[in-house]
Design brief:
Number of helices: 9
Number of domains: 1
CATH class: Alpha Beta
Largest sheet: 5 strands, parallel
Number of strands: 5
Radius of gyration: 18 Å
CATH topology: Rossmann fold
Oligomer: single chain
Structural class: alpha/beta
Length: 260
């Protein structure tokens, strides 16, 4: 159930039986020569809305404006400060809390969001204590069924940014830009690079573009295909439904805490 397309009374009725909300969160940043600037926000929203249909779950509007300073040298990228994102998250959670929401599930599609989400949640718990709604944060690629597809289809060329998996999703559910095939990157990323840059732990924008001039970070974007995008969304949306239901079932059994 999409909050934007339902009435207040319809939402109230659903919350009486399932007092939880999924909030998709992405970014507005370059995604290489053939990736849409809104790729992360679109992926999170697409998977969340499909999960909402499958599981009759309340879905909040996607949070698109987030932190992406490392891509600010590429046109189209819009980045906000991490502290601004934290404040926005707190305000959203406070609003839902006042309406009786007991579980807030962030479905993430941008690595740099993970730290601000967790930091904001710790502040919420410090302020509200045991009365706070429980929080869970999952990235759509966290699920084993999704990673099986990514590994099978793309292997080491999945890379870190402008990945063929995320571009497959937007090719299926948005559009395929009329752009020149960028070809295969010169080298795949070593495991040490992926480890050291997890969570989008990248340098300032100018240095980042100098190191990755076309915006891809070890990803062979041209391997993307709409059919794989459909498979990924199907796997991810079902995994989200299952994980959300497990999350909600734990609410009465465990104290509040950040997970995932």
């Amino acid at each position: 159930m999409n909050i934007l397309t339902h009435t207040s009374s319809e939402i109230e009725q659903l919350l009486e039986t399932t007092p939880g909300v999924i909030i998709p969160i992405g970014s507005i940043e370059q995604h290489g020569p053939i990736g849409l600037v809104g790729c992360d926000a679109l992926c999170a929203e697409t998977i969340a809305l499909e999960a909402g249909k499958l599981g009759n779950i309340l879905i909040a509007p996607v949070i698109a404006y987030t932190s992406a300073q490392f891509n600010m040298s590429f046109p189209g990228t819009i980045s906000i400060r991490s502290r601004t994102l934290m404040s926005l998250i707190e305000d959203i959670v406070d609003s839902l809390h006042r309406q009786g929401v007991k579980g807030v599930y962030f479905l993430n599609a941008h690595g740099a969001n993970i730290a601000p989400i967790r930091a904001a949640m710790h502040d919420i718990y410090s302020r509200l204590g045991d009365a706070a709604p429980r929080i869970r944060c999952r990235s759509w690629w966290d699920f084993e069924t999704v990673n099986d597809i990514r590994t099978r289809e793309f292997g080491e060329w999945e890379g870190m940014h402008a990945t063929p998996s995320e571009i497959s999703i937007t090719q299926k559910y948005q559009r395929i830009p009329d752009a020149e095939n960028p070809g295969q990157p010169e080298n795949s990323l070593p495991a040490s690079f992926i480890r050291d840059h997890a969570g989008d732990f990248h340098p300032p924008a100018e240095q980042h573009r100098a190191e990755f001039p076309d915006g891809r970070v070890g990803s062979h974007s041209a391997l993307a295909s709409p059919s794989v995008g459909a498979d990924i969304v199907a796997a991810a949306s079902q995994a989200v439904v299952d994980d959300f239901r497990a999350f909600m079932s734990e609410l009465s059994a465990r104290p509040p805490g950040v997970e995932g």
